[in-house]
UniProtKB/TrEMBL annotation:
Oxidoreductase molybdopterin-binding domain segment(s): 258-411
InterPro entries: Ig_E-set, OxRdtase_Mopterin-bd_dom, OxRdtase_Mopterin-bd_sf
SUPFAM superfamilies cross-referenced by the UniProt entry: E set domains, Oxidoreductase molybdopterin-binding domain
Entry keywords, A to Z: Membrane, Transmembrane, Transmembrane helix
Transmembrane regions listed in the UniProt entry: 58-78, 85-103, 109-129, 186-207
Gene Ontology terms for molecular function: heme binding; molybdopterin cofactor binding; sulfite oxidase activity
Keyword Cytoplasm: no
Compositional bias (Basic and acidic residues): 140-172
Superkingdom, natural source: Bacteria
Protein's GO biological process: sulfur compound metabolic process
Gene3D superfamilies: 2.60.40.650, Oxidoreductase, molybdopterin-binding domain
Coiled coil spans: none
Name recorded for this polypeptide: DMSO/TMAO reductase YedYZ molybdopterin-dependent catalytic subunit
Length: 532
């Protein structure tokens, strides 16, 4: 039992340490906890929040601790004879950790590494300790065996009675020593494993808090105003469209870096230079003393396929980029802001867009009422409404150089366009492809976007029939998506549903499918479903 408990402790400790080296959210313990939260039905969650208030997370983590301890005890009890059942329990638990870590929406597959490290170290330690433990019990049995053997020998060889007695005594003594030694070895080993577990956990904590990002985010979070209320009727979430505001942890993510950069707030500097009158270097405190704006923006990825979900909406808080450009003084001939992330990623945002009076491009440090999450660019990122993210939304921003378009960016070097305004798009969210639903009246629903122009109408049609206008949700602003719904009649059988949007410039989406490269996909989203 000592073997299984200390092995499980080691697994958790190593997992925590490994996540301290990569990123805190990847700690298997937290990943399992977060997944548990996600899987909890909403009413239960509400109950837990009512019951335990702010400490409901602590209650969850504590409860998990008890469950894990219980599992460790069970693993120990099952493994009296062979290590296999214990290994199976620990293995299953570890695999759950790995799966939880890799399934989290805000984690990449690489973030499962801490859980894998935990699994491997847990299994290894248990196998090893179990072997030591069984060696000490085998030694016990040898005690008795040798004593009997000694007695046999007594009977068999009278002459050598004295010698045999000596032998037997020696054997018993040796066996006793072996037993004591191997038990001591086991206890020392198990204690060692537990100590390493503790050390690893403390080390992981140290690494996490050394970066101080959690504390810094909490501190900054206090300065971020809450989101303005979403107007009534801005989404049809009850019909299966996304909620108007995307919660931060559900917000889509596109990263070229394998692990998320962690920047210490005190180390963060932003340099604005190049074709400017006066170069500027800002620390975080310098930045936030400037005029701040709050903007609700739908971000979209150029690599989004027709019907894809690389599109999300958040309210960002930050300093208008236009203000900073005025401050540094843009020299004539400058065409783009060439931005660089701490991870080396680069993007080029056209200056004419950034300088537009109502565009609302921000150096954002707040997202949906909290500090910018690490995954979304902590401490500061760019957000430019109306342009695809790859050339306008650099995360972990550290450098802005005013240049001409000659300077090539990360994605331009890989064949993507230099300029890429967002293309008018629409998507069907309900029904889902191949969904079956009862024939008769059925409401289909979805989302459309056309930043910065805004959506004017959305039309739908079934089986190539006449286009019918959908009802639109309340418009929040031109830089955000707009949900739509339409109640249609479906005869029994298979049906093709298509949708198309028209934006306020009068442009209507065309049928022809265009792939994402080089400047964004277009075409009508169409799905097949069955009315029964
Ligand atoms: N440093 C950095 N910034 C980046 C990216 C990246 O890979 N690295 N991806 C860009 C792309 S392609 C998009 S669509 C948006 C996505 O922002 P999100 O991950 O916060 O949704 O960030 C942009 N900024
Ligand atoms: Mo993107």
């Amino acid at each position: 039992m000592f073997a299984s408990i200390s092995s499980v402790a080691l697994a958790l400790g190593i997992g925590h340490l490994a996540s301290g080296l990569t990123r805190p959210n990847a700690s298997p313990y937290l990943a399992v906890g977060n997944t548990a939260i996600d899987l909890t039905p909403e009413p239960v969650k509400q109950f837990a929040i009512r019951q335990f208030g702010e400490s409901n997370k602590l209650v969850l983590l504590g409860g998990m601790g008890l469950v894990i301890l219980l599992l460790a005890v069970i693993a120990g009890l099952l493994s009296r004879r062979t290590a296999t059942p214990g290994l199976a329990v620990i293995g299953a638990f570890g695999v759950a950790g790995v799966v939880a870590a890799s399934l989290r929406r805000d984690l990449t597959v690489l973030d499962a590494l801490p859980a894998v490290a935990a699994l491997v170290s847990g299994l290894g330690a248990f196998g090893w300790l179990h072997r030591l433990a069984s060696r000490s019990t085998t030694a016990h049995r040898t005690d008795d065996g040798t004593a009997t053997e000694g007695a046999d020998r007594d009977d068999a060889r009278e002459d050598a009675r004295e010698d045999a007695r000596e032998d037997a005594r020696d054997d018993v003594a040796t066996a006793a020593t072996t037993s004591a030694t191997s038990r001591r070895t086991f206890v020392l080993a198990a204690a060692g494993v537990t100590a390493v577990a503790g050390g690893a956990a403390v080390g992981g904590r140290f690494l996490t808090s050394r970066s101080g990002v959690d504390a810094a985010r909490t501190e900054i979070g206090r300065r971020i105003p809450p989101n303005p209320p979403v107007p009534r009727g801005a989404d049809f979430a009850s019909l299966g469209t996304p909620s108007f505001i995307t919660p931060n942890r559900a917000f889509y993510r596109v990263d070229t870096a394998l692990s998320v950069p962690t920047i210490r707030l005190d180390d963060w500097r932003l340099r604005i230079h190049g074709m400017v009158d006066k170069e500027l270097i800002l620390g975080f405190d310098d930045l936030i003393t400037r005029r701040v704006e709050q903007r609700t923006v739908t971000l979209t990825c150029v690599s989004n396929q027709v019907g894809g979900d690389y599109v999300s909406t958040a309210t960002f808080t930050g300093v208008p980029i236009r203000d900073l450009l005025d401050e540094v003084g843009v020299r004539s001939g400058a065409e783009q802001v060439f931005s660089t992330s701490v991870d080396g990623y680069t993007a080029g945002t056209p200056l004419d867009v950034l300088r537009e009076a109502d565009r609302g491009a921000l150096l954002a440090y707040g997202m949906n009422g909290e500090a910018l999450p690490v995954e979304h660019g902590f401490p500061v990122r760019m957000v430019t409404p109306g342009l695809y993210g790859y050339l306008s939304a650099t995360k972990w921003l550290v450098d802005m150089e005013l240049t001409t378009f000659d300077k090539q960016t990360y994605w331009e070097e890989r064949g993507w366009a230099e300029r890429a305004p967002i293309k008018t798009q629409s998507r069907i969210d309900r029904p889902q492809p191949f969904q079956k639903f009862p024939a008769g009246a059925f409401t289909i629903a979805g989302v459309a976007w056309a930043q910065p122009t805004a959506i004017d109408t959305v039309e739908v049609r079934v089986d190539g029939g006449p286009w019918q206008q959908a009802d639109l949700a309340t418009e929040v602003n031109e830089q955000t998506w707009r949900m739509w719904r339409a109640e249609l009649e479906f005869t029994p059988g298979g049906h093709d549903i298509e949708c198309r949007a028209t934006d306020k410039s009068g442009y209507t989406q065309q049928a022809r499918r265009v792939p994402p490269v080089p400047d964004g996909a277009t075409g009508w989203h169409s799905i097949f479903c069955t009315a029964t």
